[in-house]
Design a protein that fits this description.
Number of strands: 0
Structural class: mainly alpha
Largest sheet: none
Radius of gyration: 14 Å
Number of helices: 3
Order of helices and strands: HHH
Length: 76
């Protein structure tokens, strides 16, 4: 489900921003946040158990939504 969810999130981000470079920037930074979080969990030695399995999609959605808000403030 990850590729389908990512495609839907990029489409939603583009619909909100109406700019392809801003969409790629916001989505890329959200993916970077997820990667940093998962890398930190790996190096600390923590495992993805049942409660932490929702962490990557939650961070991706929260990062994208906050990026959309910040980009809209910048465009205004």
């Amino acid at each position: 489900f990850a590729p389908l969810a990512a495609a839907m999130l990029v489409l939603l981000c583009w619909m909100c921003l109406r700019s392809f470079p801003a969409t790629l920037c916001v989505f890329g930074l959200a993916l970077l946040g997820v990667a940093i979080t998962l890398a930190t969990m790996h190096y600390v030695g923590d495992k993805l158990d049942a409660p932490l399995i929702v962490l990557p999609p939650l961070l991706l959605i929260l990062g994208t939504s906050s990026g959309i808000h910040l980009a809209n403030y910048y465009f205004d």
